[in-house]
Amino acid sequence: MTAPMNNDDTRILYNDTCPLCRFEVDHYRAAATRTGAPLRFDRLEDAADWGLTEDQAARRLHVLRDGELLSGLAAFRAIWATLPRWRWLARITGWPVIRPAVTVLYDRIAAPLLYRAHLRRSAKRAGRQ
Predict the structure, then answer these.
(1) So where are the chain's domains?
(2) Is-contact 12 78, C-beta < 8 A?
(3) Which residues contact 74 (CB under 8 A, 6 or more apart)?
(4) Which letter, b or e, does each residue of 31-64 get, where b requires 16 or more Cβ atoms within 10 Å of its Cβ?
């Protein structure tokens, strides 16, 4: 179950079964704890609370901020904008020349690779049961 949410909270729905995703989110969690940034973290099993299936949630990072569901680069930028030492990255990745390139890298390369790795891990787990 998730913690009670403040209206200023930015909620992050992440794939906690993905080692890379977990590593990155743990870093954000530590930074949020250190700075008091209003970040909340939901695991893949909480996807239904977001109106998503676990499969949809596993395909990319999702963030709920100010009532808006964001995914992909927009989700990362919302997280970075909340963390004091990461705000510069949120700004730079919003530049008109940078944003499209980073979006393509995430949407066409990073997210599909991470999702396929997730499917392989899930198949291995199912095979062991």
Answers:
(1) 10-123
(2) no
(3) 63
(4) bbeeeebebbbbbbebbeeeebebeebbbbbbbb
Interatomic CA distance for residues 56 and 49, integer angstroms: 13
Contact between residue 26 and residue 70 where contact means Cβ atoms under 8 Å apart: no
Angstrom distance (rounded) from CA 9 to CA 70: 14
Q: What distance in Å separates the CA atoms of residue 44 and residue 47, rounded to the nearest whole number?
A: 5
Task: Quote the pTM value.
Answer: 0.89
Amino acid at the residue 95? W
- Which secondary structure element, helix H or strand E, spans residue 39, and what is its range? strand 39-43
Per-residue pLDDT for the chain (129 aa), expressed as one digit of tens each? 344 445 578 999 999 999 999 999 999 999 999 999 999 999 999 999 999 999 999 999 999 999 999 999 999 999 999 999 999 999 999 999 999 999 999 999 999 999 999 999 999 988 876
CB count in 10 Å sphere of residue 75: 22
Q: Strand, helix or coil at 41?
A: strand
